[in-house]
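Summary for the funding panel

The consortium committed to producing paired sequence-structure records for every protein in the target list. Below we show the first two records in order, beginning with the earlier of the two.
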Amino acid sequence: MNSLVADIGGTKTLLSVLEKSTNGLTTRIEARYPCDQFESFDDLLTDFYQAYDIPKISYACFAVAGPIIQLSENHQTVNVTNLPWKLDNHCLQTKFDLPELTLINDFQAIGYGVESLKNNQLVTLQTGKKQAKEPIAIIGAGTGLGQCFLYWNGNQYQVHATEGGHVDFAPTNEEQLELLKWLQCETKPIAFEHVLSGPGIYKIYQFFAQQYPSNQLEHLKVAEDPSAIISQLALTKKDPCAERTMKLFVECYGSQAGNLALSIVPKGGLFIAGGIASKIINLMTEAIFMTSFLHKDQMKSVLQTIPVHIVTDSNIGLMGAGVYSFIPQKDKFCLSR
């Protein structure tokens, strides 16, 4: 049996055809598309079908960056965060002749993929004391900031997507407080996603550019992905402004990961996914992230027991969507309640 799966983010979309066998899931076709080249997801999927010889599809699951609206038991829609796209599973089923299609949140998909991760797909920041069947939490900065959690329902882990990336940004020192005040000159309220995201990295850089010499600002204004340039400059230590930017970014990342850990107490582990962490491993493994993570006054001893890992597999969302696609429809409804 084959499943058509997608991981739809604000910047890129990954598409894959997965085949299920006794050995698990195998990738038959895989493609990556920049979202800004298509007016709608329908146009992107049409391009995919025209470019590849798509086998018979038995199931489909699309993981989307945005809150899923459940109109009825089997009818779903979603407006993609940071994109003018709207997906409707009934319309897509009809247009592309799909026998079954489920929409899930992109971080919900990561939740379904996290159990299949192997040690070589993880970088451990804190071993902690993992406990079986205990809650698991996931956070990940990319185009936006995603968060979800898993809890054991007696038979299996059930994944719950959240919009926790939109909670208020809470400064923990004077420098972060000055950043908040600067950001508030442009928009209010300020959420953690305004800081912990690709666009957030560029905003932090602009903030520091007022204080530190930068010959990159004009170049970054026209760059396709300024955050990637800034993180690379920081890693190579070629720009003091970029170094300060990424130091503050990692510091805030650790702080919000600690907030999530205190909210869920994920004794099964906290996983850092998203498109940024795996690209700045050298910065994430420095002391600043875990120092900020543990900086919670009397709760430090609780946080020290939680395993903390960075996910390095960029296809975890696709694999999670694949896992979910093969769950029987009646069980999907129970898991999404």
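The next record, for a separate protein in the list, is shown here:
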Amino acid sequence: MFEKVVMATDFTPGGEKLFNCLGELKAVGTKEIILTWVMEIRYSGGPSGSLQKQHRQKLAEKTKEIEKMGFKASYEAPIGFPAREINTVAEKVDASLIVIASRGKNRVRDFFLGSTTSTMIRQTKTPTLIERIELIESLGEKDCQLVCSRKFDSILMPTDFSTAAEEAEKVVSGLAKHAGKIVLASVVEEGESEEEIEELRKKASRQLEELGESCRKSCPEVKIRIETGIPSKHIKTIAEEEDITLIVQGMRGKGGVEGLVLGSTAETVARTSARPVLLVPAKI
């Protein structure tokens, strides 16, 4: 799974921490890494030749380090608008995954999506892993670190059983053999009556049990959670209660030049989760 990965970096302290997840990616089947560092157009004429040379030299050095870890590795150094160029690279190389970082905003570990990440996931046709980077302070020194260093250990997959969720379900089935626990969840939104809500909960439970059967063949612990209310809020609560290390979320496709629309739940989860989020686009 995820044999060919585009890793988007900018070599900032936070971006550098992405390389710490290479071992995990290798464990789930990644064989090839394409480092991608976009030289953003900030002014007319683009970056100077000397800056481009430094840019490529740093990428080449890091590529050699990654090769020593047993990966096939290469790099791309496009010039342009980062979100667009990252997606272009992923499509060009037929990547199975994009990895990109988001950073913590304050001490309570709120997270935000930078403009590049936010724009990229709205346009992408490639599954995208949003790694969470937090700033920690110890003995007066500040450093960045990944929020989850073993992100495939405990997986949460919220689903509404729509076509947008089907590809996410396939991804979770593929990751099941690497996980110690999988939590399958569905949040029933408020209905017209208690009877209607109860019927919806029963139906969701049956569907989740069917999904759970395939996961139980490979994963030692599979849990079912049915909640009622606002999906994004319950997803966050479940992630905290179950000590989740990765949320796998489907997102719906719109097609044409407009690209992908996340939908309110997927977008809120991607924007506010304190844990890594793997967004899986629906097939268009």
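Regarding this second record: The chain is about 40% helix and 25% strand. The longest helix spans residues 194-216.
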